[in-house]
Amino acid sequence: MTASGPPPDAAAELEDLLQFFYQCPVGLVDAHDDGRLRRVNPAAVRMLAPALRPGEDLDRLHPVLDRLAPGLSAMLTTRPERLGPLHPGTRVVVTVPPDGGPQVELRFVRVAPDHVMVVAADVTVEQRLARRTLTLAARLRDVIAAAEAYRDAAAEVLGVAPSGVGVLEELVLRGPRTPSAISRRVGLSSSSVTAVVDQLESAGLVERVANPADRRSTLVTLAPGASDRIRPVLDLLVSGIDRVAEGASAHAQDVAATLEAVTSALRSRTAVRGGQVPRPVRPTDG
Q1: Which residues of 21-30 are buried (b: 16+ CB within 10 A; e: fewer)?
Q2: Which parts form a coiled-coil structure per UniProt (predicted)?
Q3: CA 39 to chain centre
């Protein structure tokens, strides 16, 4: 014997559902396959109304969708026999109105064989942030390319390999370093650092000295007089950056903090083992 309570109030449940539908901050459009609207909530009206023509009512969905993106309405009529999300994995973002306005993401869900629910969400802020991120990434690539070009030019002047310039920069900025510390900072393997230091030593730019903190290791330091050869070359870059920073002093701290955060994020997400970045593992079926 099971306990029985009062029968659910179907009218109250329907009222709750309708209240959710009409108060939901996400746009919801329930439409027949031919585009006739069954119901639409205020959020969807607010997002889609800018696409309407003067005097036009939002009573048919297909013309509005095709105005936003030609052929978009065809996405609603596919696979009428299958309920659930239509075109999973496909992201549809449109501008409403098409000539300039908020960015709206549309998702289509078949809730019955003869009608579809369209879910609309304002993603303007998300899209703006994405564009800023892409712009920042492009500017960072430009900085990296410019730095590499400068390093190549400096290497030619000093008569060393470009990787040697990175080691020299590290020694100028941080003073004597162990080979392992140099390896971590400049991103070279231990054997590569050894070869670079050998070349720099032959050029009279660095020398190996005993490490007072650990007799089992050595320190790499600038050779006597090497600073006079190195600093004029590196100072060209430093002075150029200083002039830019002085001209943008109000934002220099923000830029520096952003670059530091990006650098930290890249390093934390890049696990380098044996000089190779692990490739992502593809999921397998089953």
Answers
A1: eeeeeebbbb
A2: none
A3: 37
